[in-house]
Amino acid sequence: MTKIKNNSITIVLIIISLILLFVWIVFLNNSNKVEDDGKFNIVTTFYPMELIIKNISKDAKNLQIDNITKEIGGCVHEYSLTPDDAKIIEKADVLVINGGDMEHFIQNINLKKLNIIDSSLDIKDLDTSSHFWMNIDLYIKQVENISNGLIKYNPENKEIYEKNAQEYIKKLNELKEIYNDIPSSDVNVAIMHDSFNYYKGKFNITASLITGHEGNHSANDLQDFVNKIKSTQTKILLVDNDTFNNNQSLIDTIVNDTKIEVFQLNLIVENTEDLNNYLDLMEYNYEIIEGMINYGKAY
C-alpha cells in the first residue's frame, strides 16, 4: 500500500512539474512577443524608401511607418543593426528594402519570417549602381514595386495606394521631361560616384574615382584618376554632396593638381519630412547638370 501511495505522489509531482514547466514556457513566449497595436507596421531600411512609402501611403488608415536608420541619414552601406532595430523589425508586417546589395546589414536577419518588398524587383541594371533612385526611370520602377507590394500585403488601403502612386508617378514623369530636355553633349566629365554613370548619355565620362562607401582608394588610384583628367583635358569634376562635405581634402588635392572645376549633386539620402524632397532635389540636380554642360561647352 505504501508503495502504491508513493507512486501516486510521484505521478502527481511529475504532473505538477509539467504544468509549471508549460506555464513558464508560455510566460517566456508571451514576454518576448511585441505587443500588437492593431496597425499595419511598415519598416523601411533608409530614407529613399521611407520617402516613397510616405508619398504612397498619404491618408491610408491604421499604418505605422518606421525607418530603422532615421537617426543617421546618408547611405547605409556600413550600417549595423542595433537591438532597438531588431525590436522594430520584429513587429514589422512588411520590410521595404532598396535591394541591389545596398543593405548589407539585413543579411543578419531571418528574412524567411518577414514579408519583404524589394524595390529593385525587375530592375535589370543592377551593376551600374545600387543608388537606383538617382535614375528617375528606375525610381519610378521602385515606386511601382513598392506600391504593388503594399497592395499585396495591406489590401485594406489598396485604393489609396493606387491613387497616391499614380499621382506621384505623374509628378515624376513631369520631372523626367526636365531631364530629357537637357541636350546631350560631348563635354568631358570626371566623376566620383558610381550613380553618376546613369547620366553618361548627357556627357562623356572620361575618368572615375569611386571612393566607395568605405572611402578607400589607393595612391595609385588617385594618380591614375589625375592622369586621366589631364590626358583627356577634362575640366569638370562631378562629386556627390557626401564626398564634398566629408572628403574635402581629397577634392582639394585633385583640384590643386588639375585646376578642374567642381560641381556637386545631391544624393537625396538626408532625412526630412518634406514629401516633395525628391522632386525638388532632383530638379536641382538637373539644373546642376545643365549648368555644368553649359560651362563645359563655353570653356
Q: Please give the largest β-sheet.
A: 4 strands, parallel
Order of helices and strands: HEHEHEEHHEEHEHHEH
Rg over CA atoms: 26 Å
Biggest β-sheet: strands ordered side by side in the sheet: 2-1-3-4
Helix content: 40-55%
In DSSP terms, counting alpha (H) and pi (I) runs of 4 or more, how many helices? 9
What would you call the shape? Answer: elongated
Structural class: alpha/beta
Secondary structure tally: strands: 8
In angstroms, what separates the terminal alpha carbons?
A: 111 Å
Report mean pLDDT, rounded to a whole number.
Answer: 88
Q: Kindly estimate the percentage of residues that lie in beta strands according to DSSP.
A: 5-15%
Low-confidence stretches: 26-34
Structure commentary:
This protein is an alpha/beta fold and 299 residues long. Helices cover 47% and strands 12% of the residues. The chain has nine helices and eight strands. It has helices at 2-31, 47-56, 83-90, 136-153, 158-180, 219-231, 241-246, 248-258, 277-298, and strands at 40-44, 63-67, 94-97, 116-118, 188-191, 204-208, 236-240, 261-265. A four-stranded parallel beta sheet has the order 2-1-3-4, with helices on one face. A four-stranded parallel beta sheet has the order 6-5-7-8, with helices on both faces. Strand 1, helix 2 and strand 2 (63-67) form a beta-alpha-beta unit. Helix 4 (136-153) runs antiparallel to helix 5 (158-180) and helix 5 (158-180) packs parallel to helix 9 (277-298). The longest helix is centred in the N-terminal third of the chain and has 30 residues, at 2-31. The relative contact order is 0.11.
